[in-house]
Amino acid sequence: MSVIHDYLRPKKKFPHVWCAGCGHGTILASIIRAIHSLGLDRNKVILVSGIGCSSRAPVYEDFHTLHTTHGRALAFAPGVKMSKPELTVIVITGDGDAVAIGGNHFIHSCRRNIDITTIVFNNSIYGMTGGQVSPTTPEGDRATTAPYGKVGEAFDVCQLAGGAGATFVARGTAVNPSQLEKLLVRGIGHKGFSVIEAISQCPIIYGRLNKKGGPVEMLKWQKDHSITVESFHAKLSRMGADKASSSILEGKFLTGVFTEEKGVPEFCENYEAQVRQLVGKREAA
Ligand code: SF4
Ligand code: MG
């Protein structure tokens, strides 16, 4: 039996709801492998999710599970972390769940630097709830609520997270699960708020609406349009000019680690310190 099977809940929760060819199963497997390779006690790990296709992932995994309401995983998860700081708290969310409905919780979690890992499954659309346009739907692409194409640019989840103060920010893809696993290991192991965006494919809703082909074509698209931060910098130094960056990146997106700040004060520890100070003052009075 593989490591993956050992962490699933086949009897109680399968069959799963995901469509054939969906990228979410690949990402789930990377999450399990990352937790396993970190050697974490499964009874000290909690997965918190909102609503949507991605938010079903914790249901299938044998860790503590908190399946909450749409967009609110990052409203619940800090409560868990603050009451039980010894737990590894991992939020699993989708693009709509994280940066539309839950956008306010997302930016304030980044700002607070609370020790939680948030994994954003980005399939560029609301899948489960009907194919509505999401903040990460690319400009011009169709959704059920944008039948003539989305007007306006897409949110960049990683730039949003970094700008709001997350101390670990990275992006991986379903087409490269071994890279994704390494990013997850670093992100989960990071002390502070980590965001790992995982580009996923939704062949059934987004793919069909936008004539992207089946899962194989969509995975090939991810492979052909992504470039690691390391190869980007290597190409840049070979070309020897900053102005070359736009040509290297044309039509492509970066994967890898964008931010990793160590030693930044963490929210739960700051809060605890304040409580100790207040208790000390009261006892001295
Ligand atoms: Fe995956 Fe899309 Fe199906 Fe949801 S609707 S399970 S994201 S393929
Ligand atoms: Mg989505």
Task: Quickly list its features.
single chain, 285 residues, alpha/beta, Rossmann fold, 14 helices, globular, binds iron/sulfur cluster
Structural account:
The chain is α/β, with parallel strands linked by helices and 285 residues long. The protein has one domain (2-284): 3-Layer(aba) Sandwich (Rossmann fold), CATH 3.40.50.970. It has 14 helices and 8 strands. The chain has helices at residues 3-6, 10-13, 24-37, 57-60, 73-83, 95-101, 103-112, 157-164, 177-189, 203-209, 215-225, 229-239, 245-249, 267-284; strands at 45-49, 64-67, 88-94, 117-122, 168-173, 194-199, 226-228, 253-260. The protein has an 8-stranded mixed β-sheet with strand order 2-1-3-4-6-5-8-7, with helices on both faces. Helix 9 (177-189) links the parallel strand 5 and strand 6 (194-199). Helix 3 packs across helix 9. The radius of gyration is 19 Å and the shape is globular. Bound molecules: iron/sulfur cluster and magnesium ion. Magnesium ion binds next to helix 6.
Tally the helices: what do you get? 14
The shape, in one word, is globular
Averaged pLDDT, please?
96
Largest sheet: 8 strands, mixed
The CATH topology comes to Rossmann fold
End-to-end gap: 62 Å
Range of strand content: 15-25%
Helix content: 40-55%
Radius of gyration: 19 Å
Please give the CATH architecture.
Answer: 3-Layer(aba) Sandwich
Bound small molecules, by name, code or SMILES, are:
iron/sulfur cluster, magnesium ion
Sequence of strands across the biggest β-sheet: 2-1-3-4-6-5-8-7
CATH first level: Alpha Beta
Q: Could you name the CATH homologous superfamily?
A: Thiamin diphosphate (ThDP)-binding fold, Pyr/PP domains
Order of H and E elements: HHHEHEHEHHEHEHEHHEHHEH
Coarse structural class: alpha/beta
User: What is the number of domains?
Assistant: 1
Give the tally of β-strands: 8
List low-confidence stretches.
none
